[in-house]
């Protein structure tokens, strides 16, 4: 598929998924042990960033020329960005709607899921910028 680029190295979106998975697991573990807490302000900020980037994604998809679409990295980066944005929006809404007290395992899992999607969103923006600058080759 499109997991590897020409030099048989892992592509940008796959490395972003791996980094996001590691960040989500670390957040989950730190939240279960009570080392960190996630404030609702961070959830609102993450929600706003995800909504803003989702709107920008639709603009980028509409105004991308055919030459960039043929390279293939645009489609992978945009789909990864949309997946991260929608996941971050939905998980932030769940976390904001339901109050998880203190050290709850379900709350920690949901915080880990939110952080996974948020980091995926950020790494997808980086992949999209690299693709537009032709740094993926």
Structure description:
This protein has 137 residues and is mainly α. The protein is 76% helix and 0% strand. The protein has helices at 12-32, 40-63, 66-71, 73-97, 105-132. Helix 1 runs antiparallel to helix 5 (105-132). The radius of gyration is 16 Å and the shape is elongated. The model has no long low-confidence stretch (mean pLDDT 82).
What's the total count of β strands?
0
Name the average pLDDT. Answer: 82
Low-confidence stretches: none
Cα distance spanning the termini: 16 Å
Task: Give the DSSP E fraction (strand runs of 2 or more residues).
Answer: under 5%
Helix content: over 70%
Instruction: Tell me the series of helices and strands, N- to C-terminal.
Output: HHHHH
Largest sheet: none
The number of helical elements comes to 5
Radius of gyration: 16 Å
Structural class: mainly alpha
The dominant shape is elongated
Question: Quick gist of this model?
Answer:
By secondary structure, the protein is mainly alpha-helical. It is 76% helix and 0% strand.
């Amino acid at each position: 598929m499109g997991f590897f680029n020409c030099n048989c190295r892992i592509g940008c979106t796959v490395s972003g998924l791996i980094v996001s998975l590691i960040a989500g697991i670390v957040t989950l573990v730190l939240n279960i042990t009570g080392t960190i807490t996630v404030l609702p302000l961070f959830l609102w900020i993450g929600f706003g960033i995800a909504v803003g980037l989702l709107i920008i994604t639709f603009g980028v998809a509409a105004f991308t020329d055919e030459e960039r679409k043929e390279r293939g990295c645009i489609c992978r980066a945009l789909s990864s960005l949309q997946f991260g944005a929608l996941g971050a929006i939905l998980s932030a809404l769940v976390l904001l709607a339901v109050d998880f007290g203190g050290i709850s395992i379900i709350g920690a899992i949901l915080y880990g899921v939110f952080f996974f999607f948020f980091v995926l969103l950020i790494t997808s923006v980086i992949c999209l910028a690299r693709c537009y600058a032709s740094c993926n080759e």
